């Protein structure tokens, strides 16, 4: 069983969620009140109550499973409950609306709920697929671990620093025509930056990548001494390697951002949802 | 030339300065990035061979070799004379010169600033984690939450709580909407749990018209403010079990569900009582009905079995509600003789205008704005063909419909006048009344009555003439009433009045228009059908035939409840819950309403 995906394999929470969904559906179909099915019938109040309870319970669970770094098993159980009950909430809350939507605070609450659940589903899908990709992305780039306890990421960072130092040293032997590309690679090779460059993870405009092209072009066109040639072979290799590491680091940033971005929706919208939910309950009984 | 190079190196983040002295010798001392340079500056900003030190006679000079030049202060110079205390900057290195010592011609002091780590490792400064580029989730949560609560809850609530509540004790006597309801706030509309029905459109934004007090379910008083005269469903004196005294209006009338009106159209609500009506009211005469298509009892038609005529001539039908069995139909006693078959026969009817093919709609026209057919009137619907024309002796006259005495008087007067004029014979000859109906009326041409000869009569002759005239009149009346005119369509009888004179009487006739008084049938939605789909008139030979369709005919389209089963078949599609003839649901509200309405009526003229 994969460690990251373990939370999806919990059978009991899955069954409880299915049971809740089926019960909600049956109650909704069987009960046919005067005035049609909506949130203000007996079943409507029931579904609303269950939904509200689930929202609060899942929020507490969400806070707790992040706060207590107890045993992995317990935490995984909590995540599992959070995921499956959250999915069951789609059924109970949607049936509570009776499919009546309008430009109102009530529908606003429902929309917030769907956004929270939707961002959660996005999170699940990311957690289910990305961890493997993340570790493969970095491990593929590792040539040699200089320190046995260094992480792949730390190793690649170190590799890149070493390359930069070698490039700088090589410039003591290379004429000034090589300075612009090498300097660009040293100073303009950006990993991350703003939100969009982090999320895109694109290496299309990588300075090292351009530098490599330029350096190769200069090598092809120029005449150099043996010493310079030896150095240029190294510079060429170093730039190529640096290009690969930078691309991997950018992908790494993108994957890690994808693994987290949903939280910027899930968490703030949950707090808005809870308040909207409280306001919804007060208002429907205020104007009963 | 000997130069003592003093290197002062500052460590990053420290005030300590390390110092090293090196003696350099040569005519030209090269400065640059290249490792072969005498003064090697390992900085990529420095050119491979950036500058050279030379003694040009006037002391130590620094001469730029590359295009980059030498920076002195803010200016770039190709050559600098170092003796005058100038400070030259190349990359992160600063050079200045002092007088020579320890055997050196010159002393060159080189200050090396610490490497700018940030500039070099630019990627270390770029943000790689979301937390670095996005606002904190907690802050976002606060902002969104406060916006939601503030906009949708706090703002409208503060307005609602600080304004005056609507009056619980008001009756809307006139006009459509209440005027005492406080204006709603902008965002209060967002509290609405769903669209208001069209019938309440005029109060759709007046939350407080129905929601009188916080945390209280909408009260019946709020409904009765406008609907004070709503009536009961059943006679609650006979059937007290169905009294809705302690029931909320809103338990059946659910608002905020849109639609035309907050009326539950599902038959299931009716069926809860009507599928076993005896369990609700043991005395009920009604049959058990759970749905139109399943077990609706046969239609109970209001059949006219006779017509009473009051002293003032007003007609009152004797109506019997008869369960309608199309195979064994009841007979209608309308008092009329009317064969539909003959009027609708193929090839048309012979009329004064020739052969005319009649259509149903030639006589039966839907009431403007109404649902039923307008009543059949002789003058409008029959007289086009059935002209009541009295034609005798060159005189043509339309006889009035439904005025027997007037008809008798006109006929009498005509013959007496003719007798006195001495033109009786001619008049009698010209009086085959029957012909008037069949032949086209011809305009009498003035001055053509040349056969009329005026004679003066003695009083005896006059008496005889009048008598003769009266006899003719009696004969003519028999023709007019008995066979040719009235008797064509009506039952007629001849009685002797108190003076022993024969008096013709037409039996009163009335046609039923509202066969199913408890149902609200509308012809409009049925227009796509032929009349004969439901009313089999072309084969009906007698007016006693009841041409209403049986329930099976309706059920062939209205196949059951629910929208997927053919035409709509819910109870409320034909029946009303609040039956207008019943007592008010809330007698006291109705009483107050009536009192205020009549007070308002009385006060109206005074105001004008």
| Total strands of chain A | 0
Major sheet details of chain A: none
Class by helix and strand content of chain B? alpha+beta
Helices of chain A, by number, come to 10
Beta-strand segment tally of chain B: 20
Largest sheet of chain B, if any? 7 strands, mixed
> What's the alpha carbon Rg of chain B, rounded to whole Å?
56 Å
Find the structural class of chain A using helix and strand composition: mainly alpha
Strand content of chain B: 15-25%
Descriptive notes:
The complex is a heterodimer of chains A (288) and B (608). Chain A has 288 residues and is mainly alpha-helical. Helices cover 75% and strands 0% of the residues of chain A. The two termini of chain A are 51 Å apart. The model of chain A has no long low-confidence stretch (mean pLDDT 86). Chain B has 608 residues and is an alpha+beta fold. Chain B is built from 20 helices and 20 strands. In chain B, α13 packs antiparallel against α16. At the A-B interface, α4, α5, α6, α9 and α10 of A face α3 and α4 of B.
């Amino acid at each position: 069983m994969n460690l990251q995906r373990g939370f999806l394999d919990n059978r009991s929470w899955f069954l409880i969620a299915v049971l809740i969904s089926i019960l909600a559906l049956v109650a909704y179909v069987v009960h046919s009140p005067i005035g049609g099915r909506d949130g203000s019938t007996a079943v409507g109040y029931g579904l609303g109550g269950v939904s509200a309870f689930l929202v609060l319970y899942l929020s507490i669970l969400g806070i707790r499973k992040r706060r207590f770094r107890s045993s992995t098993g317990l935490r995984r159980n909590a995540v599992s409950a959070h995921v499956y009950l959250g999915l069951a909430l789609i059924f109970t809350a949607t049936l509570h609306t009776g499919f009546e939507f309008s430009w109102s605070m009530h529908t606003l609450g429902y929309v917030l709920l769907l956004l929270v659940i939707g961002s959660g589903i996005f999170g699940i899908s990311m957690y289910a697929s990305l961890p493997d990709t993340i570790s493969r992305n970095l491990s593929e780039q590792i040539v040699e671990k200089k320190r046995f306890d260094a992480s792949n990421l730390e190793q690649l960072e170190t590799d890149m620093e070493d390359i930069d130092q070698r490039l700088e040293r090589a410039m003591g032997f290379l004429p000034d025509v090589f300075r612009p590309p090498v300097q660009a690679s040293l100073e303009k090779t950006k990993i991350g930056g703003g939100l969009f460059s982090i999320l895109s993870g694109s290496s299309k405009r990588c300075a090292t990548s351009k530098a490599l092209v330029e350096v190769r072009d200069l090598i092809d066109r120029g005449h150099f001494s043996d010493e310079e040639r030896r150095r240029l072979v190294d510079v060429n290799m170093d730039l190529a390697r640096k290009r690969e590491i930078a691309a991997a680091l950018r992908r790494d940033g993108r994957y890690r951002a994808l693994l987290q971005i949903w939280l910027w929706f899930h968490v703030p919208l949950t707090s808005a949802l809870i308040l909207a939910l409280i306001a919804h309950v007060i208002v429907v009984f205020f104007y009963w | 030339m000997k130069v003592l190079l003093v290197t002062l190196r500052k460590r990053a983040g420290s005030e300590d300065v390390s110092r090293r002295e090196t003696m350099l010798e040569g005519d030209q001392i090269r400065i640059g990035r290249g490792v072969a340079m005498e003064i090697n500056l390992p900085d990529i900003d420095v050119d491979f061979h950036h500058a050279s030190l030379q003694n040009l006679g006037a002391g130590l000079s620094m001469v730029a070799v590359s295009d980059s030049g030498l920076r002195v202060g803010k200016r770039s110079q190709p050559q600098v004379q170092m003796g005058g205390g100038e400070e030259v900057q190349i990359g992160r290195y600063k050079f200045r010169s002092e007088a020579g010592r320890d055997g050196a011609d010159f002393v060159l002091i080189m200050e090396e600033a610490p490497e700018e780590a940030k500039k070099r490792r630019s990627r270390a400064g770029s943000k790689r984690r979301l937390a670095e580029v996005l606002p904190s989730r907690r802050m976002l949560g606060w902002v969104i939450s406060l916006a939601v609560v503030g906009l949708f809850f706090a703002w409208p609530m503060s307005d609602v709580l600080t304004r005056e509540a609507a009056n619980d004790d008001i009756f809307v006597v006139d006009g459509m909407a209440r005027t005492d309801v406080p204006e709603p706030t902008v965002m209060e509309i967002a509290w609405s749990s769903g669209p208001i029905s069209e019938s309440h459109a005029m109060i759709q934004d007046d939350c407080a018209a129905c929601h009188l007090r916080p945390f209280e379910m909408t009260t019946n008083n709020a409904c009765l403010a406008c609907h004070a005269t709503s009536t009961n469903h059943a006679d609650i004196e006979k059937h007290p079990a169905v009294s809705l005294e302690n029931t909320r209006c809103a338990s059946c009338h659910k608002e905020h569900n849109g639609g035309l009106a907050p009326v539950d159209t599902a038959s299931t609500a009716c069926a809860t009582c009507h599928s076993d009506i005896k369990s609700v009211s043991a005395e009920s005469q009604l049959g058990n009905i759970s749905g139109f298509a399943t077990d609706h009892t046969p239609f109970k038609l209001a059949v006219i079995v006779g017509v009473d005529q009051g002293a003032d001539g007003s007609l009152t039908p004797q109506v019997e509600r008869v369960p309608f069995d199309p195979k064994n139909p009841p007979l209608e006693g309308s008092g009329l003789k009317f064969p539909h078959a003959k009027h609708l026969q193929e090839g048309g009817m012979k009329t004064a205008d020739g052969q005319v093919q009649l259509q149903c709609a030639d006589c039966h026209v839907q009431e403007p704005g109404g649902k039923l057919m307008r009543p059949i009137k002789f003058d409008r619907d029959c007289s086009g063909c059935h002209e009541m024309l009295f034609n005798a002796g060159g005189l043509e006259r339309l006889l009035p419909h439904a005025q027997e005495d007037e008809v008798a008087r006109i006929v009498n007067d005509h013959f007496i006048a003719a007798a006195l004029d001495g033109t009786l014979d001619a008049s009698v000859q010209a009086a085959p009344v029957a012909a008037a109906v069949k032949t086209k009326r011809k305009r009498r041409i003035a001055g053509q009555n040349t056969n009329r000869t005026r004679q003066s009569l003695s009083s005896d002759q006059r008496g005889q003439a009048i008598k003769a005239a009266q006899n003719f009149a009696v004969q003519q009346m028999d023709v007019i009433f008995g066979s040719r005119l009235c008797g064509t369509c009506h039952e007629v009888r001849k009685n002797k009045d108190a003076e022993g004179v024969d008096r013709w009487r037409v039996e009163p006739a009335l046609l039923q228009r509202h066969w199913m008084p408890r149902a609200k049938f509308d012809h409009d939605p049925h227009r796509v059908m032929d009349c004969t789909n439901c009313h089999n008139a072309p084969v009906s030979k007698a007016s006693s035939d009841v041409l209403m369709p049986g329930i099976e005919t309706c059920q062939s389209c209205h196949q059951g409840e629910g929208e997927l089963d053919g035409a709509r078949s819910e109870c409320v599609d034909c029946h009303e819950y609040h039956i207008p003839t019943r007592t008010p649901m809330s007698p006291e509200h109705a009483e107050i309403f009536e009192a205020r309405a009549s007070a308002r009526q009385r006060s109206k003229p005074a105001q004008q």
